[in-house]
Amino acid sequence: MTDSEYLEKTLTDGASGGLKKSKKKQKRENAWRPEGPRDPFAMLDSLPEKEQQEIQKALHLFSLGNSLPKTLQQAKKHTYRFWDTQPVPKMGDHITTHGPIDEVDANIRNEPYLLPQGFSWDTLDLSNPSVLRELGHLLNENYTEEDDNTIRFDFSPEYLLWALQPPDWRLQWHLGVRVDTNKKLVGFIAAVPAEVRIYEMKKRLVQIKFLCVHKKLRLKRMTPVLIRELTRRVNQQGLYQAVYTAGIVLPTPISSCSQWHRPLNPRKLMEVNYPGLKQNMNLQRALKFNRLPEVTKINGLRPMNKEDASGIQSLLEKNLCKFHLSPHLSLQEVKHWFLPKENVNDTYVVEADDGTLTDMVSFYTISSRVLNHPVHTDLRAACLLCVVGNTTGVAELMQDTLVLAKSKGFDIFCALDVMDSIGFLDNLKFTISDKSVHYYLYNWKCPLISPDKVGLVLPN
Ligand SMILES: CC(C)(COP(=O)(O)OP(=O)(O)OC[C@H]1O[C@@H](n2cnc3c(N)ncnc32)[C@H](O)[C@@H]1OP(=O)(O)O)[C@@H](O)C(=O)NCCC(=O)NCCS
């Protein structure tokens, strides 16, 4: 049975066939069901939100959640029904060459992949505010940040437009799935164009973003259909490679990095029991340990403005080529990704006395909702996008960045151990979390890349 057929069967047969069913209809359908345990998802669903959360927490504790591999060891024992059919390196392959896995296919199918009856593709026009809101709703309710369901992402419309509409973005690559009867958006995946340097090769490809399936339609093989359809749409535009990241292990990471955290507001993080924060100390000690200077130290450090774009472009061009995986940005892309936007991203540059830009640092904002907490409702994380500390030194630049982020009300600073991060993570009191971020290339093979040779961060 293909993934599409399986999806069709489970969606039309089973308990989650539609998202809303009348009680009468449910009763009729249940009549033929054998006696026995009820569908656990349906049971969970019928409970009040707070109880659902408690159960999810317990499941998380006992690791009965999503069983996809989180480590390479687990991955070696896992059978990837879908990924084993895709042009990606097999787990355990030792790759020493560079190039595409599949040659260009001249016969790209014209018709979209079939969705099961009752569901349709919808290309999302994000310039329509109500569509943008719907996407935000799908992601904010279903793109759960933590398995135990205590904190959820809260992507704003501005953030989504920043992430999904860089220069040359394409409407056809914002791919949604809707339920025919009520038009509810239940699945999404996006691609955005990019040029990436992979070792010595500059490659035009896409970055994959925001893969999300509604919680009630999980484990029904909708993901492979979404990926196939998006791949077809990308291929139609003459692109055959993609770069993406995931927290789970799929065939086959080209690099595996760790997420590091630096508390800016330790009191709040302790109060919301921020997951994965490994600073085992009492509040007084945490406040003292994480204290930061009130003001920045670097002369010439200031927010980026439009006129800085070409200076930043050449700074990046010079500095990112030392990595084996890095973005190659046009002037328009530099403006798009780095020009500060309220609650979306911040960029600071260091300007020398002669007006040249010597260093830069940029981070983006991930806002979250804190669920069912008596005091706190939200959390703001600053996530490092890029840092170039040529003249100043990366540790000094990051120290000032922490001061700035704290003064802007961020609760935590997050960074991956990529680029030159290793030069400041320990010194600036970042702690490693148990979260890994694995980097993948679709239809491209190349030797593995160590985290310090990765110069690319992909915002969600
Ligand atoms: C990620 C998500 C879409 C997977 O949905 P699902 O219902 O668990 O999985 P499905 O039954 O639809 O599909 C299973 C297949 O998708 C693959 N898959 C699961 N998560 C994936 C991911 N993040 N990227 C690529 N493939 C993924 C599985 O490996 C499996 O393929 P296999 O048989 O080769 O192993 C869903 O869990 C979700 O929306 N999670 C919240 C958002 C999120 O974490 N998105 C991913 C960000 S990287």
From TrEMBL:
One Gene Ontology term of the molecular function aspect: glycylpeptide N-tetradecanoyltransferase activity
Location of region: Disordered: 1-42
Q: Which residues form the Glycylpeptide N-tetradecanoyltransferase C-terminal domain?
A: 271-449
| Keywords of the record | Acyltransferase, Cytoplasm, Membrane, Phosphoprotein, Transferase
Gene3D superfamilies xrefs:
3.40.630.170
Q: What is its EC number?
A: 2.3.1.97
State one Pfam family annotation.
NMT_C
Q: Where is the composition biased (Basic and acidic residues)?
A: 1-11, 28-38
Family annotation (InterPro entries)? Acyl_CoA_acyltransferase, NMT, NMT_C, NMT_N
Indicate the segments forming the Glycylpeptide N-tetradecanoyltransferase N-terminal domain, all copies: 105-257
What family does the database annotate? Answer: Belongs to the NMT family.
Q: What does this protein do?
A: Adds a myristoyl group to the N-terminal glycine residue of certain cellular proteins.
In its UniProt entry, what is this protein called? Glycylpeptide N-tetradecanoyltransferase
